[in-house]
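Onboarding guide, step 5: your first structure request.
Type a short instruction followed by the sequence, for example:

Predict the 3D structure of this protein.
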Amino acid sequence: MSLTLSQQLYDQLRAHGEETYPHECCGILLGKSDAENLTVHQLLRAGNTRTDRAHDRYHIAPQELIQAQREGRKAGLDIVGFYHSHPDHPAQWSPTDFAEAHWLGCAYIITAIEKGHAKITNSFLLTGTTEDDKAFIDQTITVF
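The system replies with structure tokens like these:
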């Protein structure tokens, strides 16, 4: 299952990481999903509530998730994923990213921000049916 989004949204999520550098940014992806594809229609920036380790951790407040679900519902969209940045670290998921990923079937996009500039952006699909069998698999990003 690939992830599809516009060049504008792709650029916005990468810019968000540059703006928050040297801290991690985070956000929510609203869109539609089918058997073949997750399509992002809207990006919602979220505040990183991790004040203790904002340089290498992120957390989205539950209130923001609820608000995103409400916004999505009004627009006929669902939460199809999340994004965050890795300041001066590769665009690969960490053990913490995996442990804190709970939205099965959603995309988790990570952008490496090197010295304040967005470099590589990767996406990982959280697969499985429960916390016990969840796994991240590499996901192709299609930008149109």
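Each response can be followed by summary notes, for example: The two ends are 16 Å apart (CA to CA).
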